[in-house]
Amino acid sequence: MKRNILTLLLCGITLPVFSQTVNDPAAKWTKTETNFNALFVSHRHVVFLERGNKMIVEMFGLDGYDVLEDVGEILSDFQKQTVRFQDSLQVSPSSSLRIDCAYSSPDYKMFRVIKHPATGEMLVNKKGALAPLKIEQDTVRILIQKKVTKTLKSGKPWNTYNPVQLTLVLNNYTDVEHLIAQRQTIQGYVDTMRAAIRPKANKSPYTYRSTILYRPYDTVAERRFKKYDRLIDPDAYVEPDKNHDRLVLNANIGVGLVRNALAPVADLGVEFRNPWVQGEKNYRLFGIYTSSYVVFDRMAAQSFTSYANLFLNGELGSSYEGDLLTVKFQRVTLGGGYLLNPDGKYFKNTTAKLFMNFTLKSGITISPEIIATDNFRQVFPGVTIKIF
Fold it and tell me: Which of 58, 74, 95, 298 could form a disulfide with 91 if both were Cys (CB 3.0 to 4.6 A apart)?
């Protein structure tokens, strides 16, 4: 029976796996892959249910709600299908399950079951008898890929899939029965979230991001329904005030390589930060600042003279709390600068530069750059290392 479990990888990535259809247990293993990629999720709407359970709706565009016109039927069908491999869903009382289900047609469904053994123990003493408690909740993910036809700008029809992922985080996967019994209430939650989408979202559903945190059982009225114009963590219980747009004064010091000379560098400017997901370090930015390069040159009698060169720079980029570009970059920006006061032999006449800033999690910024000077007749590379 376990060999007949249908498998599908649908945890937000598009990697091929092997799966088998429900309606044909004798079918051979076939290669398949999901169309759901969490990187393209634009809307995450969450309902915090009774008993610590949770329902999460994730979609690329707001028209994904068309798929959820009868959530009770979706859950009922899921429950009927799991009856066929009940023996594979048996785990120890303290272990947890993840059940994935995906389909683009009611007659063709694919499943995957993962068992997670408990990483520790939690016991309760009930009338002198010790019984294990469940540490982690079960997860049910239902991916519905509805085939739709859209019209391109050229007027030609385009057949594609409109994927919606419905995730249930439950104390036990059998709590699906309780949700089915409350199907009208559950459908009401879904319809409420759909109706709450801001008007501007309906005008450009694929360029607008939103998060809804719906806590119908919360005793604090102000916290029962929260809407955000960005993606945030479904477990966020506190209004992320610190994520509002803001201006920030920014300063750096470091050293730069100008031609064959090392020059101290000092930056001072302002940044406009626009948060795009929850987290203090997750934001888009636009910055304007000045960079002063001080180059020293040896004169006669072992004396030195200094040349101060001031650039006016602008940059665009983003900061991310995780890793960018698969390495430990926390922030990446692209910018350009114009030299306000050519001073000395290193920069002459009209001078400009293009650069990129790569900021490591340690706070060190590496800035490779291309500099064009002397009315753009001379071009040479440079690099600057900055801290703070």
Answer: 95
